[in-house]
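Tokens for chain A. Residues wanted.
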């Protein structure tokens, strides 16, 4: 899938977009300029697919010493909101793309687009059509049949000018007339069958207010906006391939700068949804807590989960660009954040499911301060003090009463190492009336301080722990995939069968059936687990919001930017240390 392998001389080979740009530069096109843009529609929050587009466009501008614009394609007054504009600006900046002073809005070009529409009318290339939406559709034809000319197609230039200017003045109600490009109703490309350029819509726009009551269509706006900004390479996703001839037609008919459109495959990821419509539905129907729910594939969600811009950029770099649609495994995204945090997250100890340990031969009332490295491979990150005492918390999972031989953790009679501390041996198990293990009675060897025995004896297991006397209580949120199947769109008797069915076939357990009837049925009911009383080492108590840690053996955690406060930390698990999902499925 990645279009990037290594050539003989070990330079990364050029992906197909770079090859096109190289050729354009060699041919002296655009005076040697490279100018790209990211053109979001402000009708939702950005997701990881948009991040791919941002990294691609900004990356190319950087690589070729070119420029990058951020432009809102805000042609639809009904669905667009300032809230989305603000969040998009913030997310693009967070990802590290820089547009300098080039933040634009297609709505700022409304006057220019209107003047150009007049020019096309005067050239006999556009006409006012009175067909209703349904009639326009009925006249359009199909893939196998040509369309039919509208009876208004032969209106005179004068009549078209008169009607169009009156449309703009607000003389006609919504939906009564459109301005259409006069191209070819028999074209095999349906986008060229006299597409609509303007609709009447008496609606307030988030920027232009009530200045306009006619709005240009996306297709009439997008290409010319690129042209106005001097964009050289308009990079977009594959579904716009069939629109390219239309964008070309407008630029040629108007005789304006002609950017080159290049299409690439959009990013799809397993175990999640990526369409804005579905993400909106998840938010509105409260399947998630909001756009920034850490389970969402939105940039907001990923940020709150503890993803870094570096990890997202590395992921986008790694998946590369391709010309075919495919689905990338979520595990790749998780691997990218693991790799980034492994280098930089300080280590700490926390216990998610606490089990009490009493060290019987450790003096009561005594405690000591042990030194622990903040990062085993990065001494510059320094050390911290971890208190030790007679009563500890350990992870309940790290104990098994009747353990098999290869269980190298706590079990009666077996010696284990407490990380940074001592060797201990479990002597006795205390249970409640129901038979649940509530406490372990252990002994320690004082000669093993720091984790090594002077007599050279070895232990196989090392577990983490927290001194019960000094532990701080914290809330922890553990996340799993938002959907329980890799292709949530695949449902029985589906009308919304998604892409990547072959891959779905491959990943689905053999013989398993599709039982869900709606993609919503595939939501994972166990995607969030809240632990209200985890025990963490005292150094974590004052962690401010937005800090990364590796809890030894448990994963990478991020103090929630909204809910966490110094003294009352809330930890979101960004990712486990290993791909536990892959391990689980391998077991099955
Ligand atoms: P809509 O259906 O609402 O238009 P969209 O996801 O295309 O949704 P835009 O705001 O139009 O949203 O997208 C902005 C840019 O991001 C476009 O250039 C689009 O091609 C690109 N983009 C959107 N989704 C993906 C994706 N999954 N992978 C890569 N690029 C994407
Ligand atoms: Mg779009």
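Reply:
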């Amino acid at each position: 899938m990645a279009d990037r392998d290594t050539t003989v001389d070990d330079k990364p080979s050029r992906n197909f977009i770079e090859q096109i740009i190289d050729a354009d530069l060699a041919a002296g096109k655009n005076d040697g300029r490279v100018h790209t843009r990211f053109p979001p529609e402000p009708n939702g929050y950005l997701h990881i697919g948009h991040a791919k587009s941002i990294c691609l466009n900004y990356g190319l501008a950087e690589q070729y010493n070119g420029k990058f614009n951020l432009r809102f394609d805000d042609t639809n007054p009904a669905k667009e909101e300032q809230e989305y504009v603000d969040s998009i600006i913030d997310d693009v900046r967070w990802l590290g793309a820089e547009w300098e002073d080039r933040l634009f809005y297609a709505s700022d070009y409304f006057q220019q687009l209107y003047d150009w529409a007049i020019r096309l009318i005067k050239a006999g290339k556009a006409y006012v059509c009175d067909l209703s939406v349904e009639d326009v559709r009925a006249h359009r034809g199909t893939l196998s049949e040509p369309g039919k000319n509208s009876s208004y197609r032969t209106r005179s230039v004068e009549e078209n000018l008169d009607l169009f200017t009156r449309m703009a003045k607000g003389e006609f109600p919504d939906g009564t007339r459109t301005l259409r490009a006069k191209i070819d109703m028999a074209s095999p490309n349906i986008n060229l069958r006299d597409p609509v350029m303007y609709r009447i819509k008496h609606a307030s726009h988030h920027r232009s207010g009530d200045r306009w009551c006619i709005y240009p269509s996306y297709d009439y706006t997008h290409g010319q906006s690129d042209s106005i900004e001097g964009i050289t390479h308009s990079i977009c996703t594959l579904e716009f391939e069939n629109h390219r001839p239309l964008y070309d037609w407008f630029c040629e008919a108007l005789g304006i700068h002609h950017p080159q459109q290049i299409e690439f495959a959009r990013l799809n990821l397993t175990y999640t949804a990526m369409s804005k419509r579905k993400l909106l539905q998840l938010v509105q129907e409260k399947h998630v807590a909001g756009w920034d729910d850490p389970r969402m594939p939105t940039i907001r969600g990923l940020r709150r989960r503890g993803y870094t811009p570096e990890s997202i950029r590395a992921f986008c770099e790694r998946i590369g660009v391709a010309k075919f649609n495919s689905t990338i495994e979520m595990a790749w995204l998780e691997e990218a954040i693991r790799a980034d945090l492994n280098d930089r997250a300080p280590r700490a100890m926390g216990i998610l499911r606490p089990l009490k340990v009493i060290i019987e031969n450790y003096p009561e009332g005594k405690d000591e301060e042990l030194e622990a490295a903040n990062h085993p491979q990065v001494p510059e990150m320094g050390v911290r003090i971890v208190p030790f005492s007679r009563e500890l918390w350990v992870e309940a999972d790290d104990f098994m009463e009747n353990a098999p031989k290869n269980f190298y953790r706590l079990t009666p009679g077996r010696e284990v190492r407490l990380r940074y501390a001592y060797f201990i041996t479990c002597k006795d198990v205390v249970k409640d009336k129901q038979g649940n293990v509530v406490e372990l009675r252990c002994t320690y060897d004082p000669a093993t301080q720091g984790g090594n025995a002077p007599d050279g004896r070895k232990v196989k297991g090392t577990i983490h722990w927290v001194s019960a006397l000094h532990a701080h209580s914290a809330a922890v949120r553990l996340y799993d995939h938002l959907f329980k199947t890799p292709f949530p769109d695949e449902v029985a008797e589906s009308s919304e069968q998604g892409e990547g069915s072959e891959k779905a076939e491959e990943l689905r357990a053999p013989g398993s059936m599709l039982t869900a009837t709606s993609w919503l049925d595939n939501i994972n009911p166990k995607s969030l687990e809240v632990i209200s009383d985890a025990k963490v080492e005292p150094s974590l108590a004052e962690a401010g919001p937005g800090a990364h840690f590796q809890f030894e053996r448990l994963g990478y955690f991020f103090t929630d930017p909204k809910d966490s406060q110094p003294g009352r930390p809330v930890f979101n698990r960004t990712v486990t240390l290993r791909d536990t999902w892959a391990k689980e499925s391998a077991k099955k």
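The longest helix spans residues 48-63. The longest strand covers residues 423-431.
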